[in-house]
Amino acid sequence: MNKSYYIGLDVHSEKNAIAHALEGSREEATYYGSCGASVPNTEVTLRRLAKKLGVPFKELKVCYEAGPTGFVLARRLIHLGLECIVIAPTKTERKPGEKVRTDRRDAKKLAKLLRNGDLTPVYIPPASDEAVRDVCRARTDAVDDLTRTKQRLKAFLLRNGYRPQGANWSQKHMRYLRELVLADGNQKIVLEEYLQAIDTGIERVARLEAKMFELLEGWEWKEVADALKGFQVVAAMITISELGDLTRFKHPRQLMGFLGLVPSEDSTGTRRRQGAITKCGNSHARWLLIESAQAYRNTPKVSAKLSKRQEGQSGAVKALSWRAQDRLSGRYRRLKLRGKRENKVIVAVARELCAFIWELHQLMGDDLPASTQTHRNP
pTM for the whole thing? Predict the structure, then answer.
């Protein structure tokens, strides 16, 4: 019987290094060479390698590390019928004494570890989900840029002895800034430039949010996003686009660990020592959940806005929403009464919020997109 070959790719922006290891062999992986980093170049090189090895092209099993090059290559190879996984670089075995790293060595190591089954694959999102995620991240970047511009303007005014009137960035505040007369004409130009940048930033955020709402109508995850509207449409879309299909996690603790919301630990013998959260995994989703968790400072209630957002939802989803409010709000109060610091309390609430989001995905079950079945980890 023909044996499979395991291919390790060390992927970069300019060139990809390729190595192969034979199934069932104890020998070291063999370095094949390098090729251009484009997807067509890599595909042609892999076909030549399969021909040289005397095996069908679809018998190759390929892996490469997740990085800035994204999932385009993996999707192409999977579409061609190859078994291709993208692996987590932080979970790749590295020896403490290993001080020499080259593309050749990395490719050979990946091929060997793939043959031994010692690699941890990451979730490959569908291209449509990644497009929505890019729009969501662009909106976050626009909000960050707008916030920084506002901070710079406030610092400029404070440096020159001006104390703006009214609540920050309210209509009264903006009217005051537009009518403000500065002693030096050059400083007035600076003020106008900042105000124009703020107007541009507001329009940019509005355009991206409008695009998000437009994408939501045709998105396969719309049903889940509607069920998550308890923390606003924008937050729901960002959460789903970042996390994808949560049914790949067998238990909510796995999701908490994936987001880096679990405490680090250094225990030995009878001593148990826990430290700060690990902060591994998806930092964008972790940030959003921590921001959303701050809403549970408030007393739980079903407001008029929440009732409107819940229109059309099943009784089970509404019951889960109320249970999450009641549980997390109570959790926040109990931890505060115990004298815990605010940041620890918010992180603890965000960690439990993960469990409710995971439960919602399990609850919806049949409403999840059918295409997600083909994008889960092996």
Answer: 0.86
Q: Is 13 helix (H, G, I), strand (E, B) or coil?
A: coil
Q: Which residues, other chains included, contact 109 with Cβ-Cβ below 8 Å and sequence gap of 6+? A: 8, 29, 92
What are the residue boundaries of the structural domains of the chain, listed by start? 5-116, 127-218, 222-374
Q: Class of 5-116 per CATH?
A: alpha beta
Cα–Cα dist 361/239, whole Å:
12
DSSP secondary structure string for all residues of 252-296: HHHHHHHTT-SEEE--BTTB--EEEE---S-HHHHHHHHHHHGGG
Residue recorded with tokens 């990644």: 130
The DSSP 8-state label assigned to residue 85 in this structure reads E
Q: Which neighbouring-strand residues pair with 302? A: none
Q: Is residue 308 within 8 Å of 238, Cβ to Cβ? A: no
List the end-to-end C-alpha distance of the chain, in Å, as a whole number: 24
Contact residues for 32 (Cβ-Cβ < 8 A; gap 6+): 18, 19, 20, 49
Distance CA 140, CA 114 (A): 36
pLDDT tens per residue across span 205-251: 999 999 999 999 999 888 888 777 556 788 889 999 999 888 889 99
Helices (H) and strands (E) in the chain, counts: 13, 7
Write down the residue that tokens 């092996």 correspond to.
Answer: 378
Give CA 2 to chain center in angstroms.
40
